[in-house]
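Box S2. Input/output pair 1.
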Amino acid sequence: MNDQHFMKIALEEARKAKEIGEVPIGAVIVLNDVVVGVAHNLRETEQRSIAHAEILAIDQACKEVDSWRLEDATLYVTLEPCPMCAGAIVLSRIKRVVYGASDPKGGCAGTLMNLLQEERFNHQVEVTKGIEEQECSGMLSSFFRELREKKKKEKNT
């Protein structure tokens, strides 16, 4: 299995989020080539600020492996992790993060700042960026374009 294969699974999760009106972000956690956690954003659906795809996938993976330590796992996510998710990734000891689209407004895996490789923490994470970047960023761009158009129509009605 390769990075593109698992990012495609994350993209499927992102599509599920989009179908229910969520920001289309999907995450997959893989351990020894086996998916142990998979999720998409549910923040709007559940009205919980922590219901990001990465947090939900980490929670599921911890339950699956019966440990809070995900030391040899790789997390695939369609958008660069935010500060909250980056913190959860570090604290769960995930070995590697692979993301699709960079987030210039909140990315904490190297764009805005790099919490995943902050040397002052007791754990650093390997980062690979830009996997399936066009599809990941395209899905997000079209989602927000459609949202703006919908709000504009509602305002003019």
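Box S3. Input/output pair 2.
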Amino acid sequence: MPQTPSPGQHRLFSRPSYPEFIRIGKILRKETVGGMLLIAGAVLALIWANTPWSDSYFALRDFHFGPEIFGVNLDLSLGHWAADALLAIFFFLTGLELKKEFVIGDLRRFKTAVVPVTAAFGGVLVPALFYTIINFSAGEETLRGWAIPTATDIAFAVAVLAVIGSALPTALRIFLLTLAVVDDLIAIVIIAFVFTDELKLNYLGLALIPIAAFTILAYAFGKLFANHAWAAWLLLLPLGVLTWIFVFGSGIHATIAGVVLGFCVPVKRRHPGRGRGLAQEFEHRFRPLSSGFAIPVFAFFSAGVSVVGMESAGELFLDPVFWGIVIGLVVGKPIGIMGSTWVLTKFTKASLDEDTKWGDLLGVTLLAGIGFTVSLLVSELSFGLQSPHYEHAKVAILTGSFVAAILGALWLVPRNRRYRVIHERETRDENKDGIPDVYQQDS
């Protein structure tokens, strides 16, 4: 029987505010499609890279082109363009989502933010610790990959939920999404500070000019950009491209430019009225570009690894990098998230919502072990394209993500009947305005 919370006690995974419920639901539906395309891109790359025509795949991935602009050499391979330029779109949306969560989302309130934030840190620290322990005696080179198993790919995870038909309660779905958003924030910090070998302050200073212009225009003419897409393409896009070039030239990974620009977009409307704010409008416009093109193309160029071309399976399985990543994703993620959440319930006034069991949380933490997009990016930054550890890391990411998806599905599917009962009960609670009674207080 669920325990009745004492006065002042906060329920973990309780129902979110109604606007948050609607907003996150829309995002999840879009991420489902994007996750399917991501999986398709990765599978196509794996098949092509392991056929007799594999040389053509790697020739395409390694094809170089690009000019030199403002002294920045942009002669990059297609794979490099996908990782640095296309993923900047994904990270721009991440920046928008992070700012919205902290300004108008549930993360603006400490009592709702503390749970996913704490869980995200646990889900980063424990996999990194597992990886470090496994690779400690292997040398400094393999230790560079400690951040690879720390990421959660929300698009992939939501796609798995769609495939298995899970009726996971909305509160837990939002927890998984928020966990992944905070997880991305931590990954952004790691990429910016850990994988910047040489910082060129002159280019970083130059980047501040288009960033400042972008911010001023976004706040001054938010209504124009929200109502007329052409205005944003004509005025803001060139500033975004300049920012990307200068950040790339500074030595910081260029995707950070996307995050910074995302934070420069206003969330709230300056004048009350109907319609979306600029951040929400940009998210609506650019998410299909990210989910439908940028991420699948990145997955296509990053996931291709010639397993049949490896010298031996023994070489793969003897590499501690492989086991550090797989165990970090499959074991470290659930332990880190579950453990940190359990600590919250033991040493604070927080408790699980009456509809949420620890077994439900375990299923979510297993899905959080699906690390793909950011993990592939970090593996490239950790080892470089020519390192055999990089190829092993890609196989490990694919293996760990696949195992996590299977375990999450096997755990959650038998619980679908109970989840549907919860959903039907919440549906019956809808009032005459179409808003569930449980959301009236916060709407």
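Caption for Box S3: The first strand starts at residue 10 and ends at 12. The beta strands are 10-12, 64-65, 68-69, 72-73, 76-77, 350-352.
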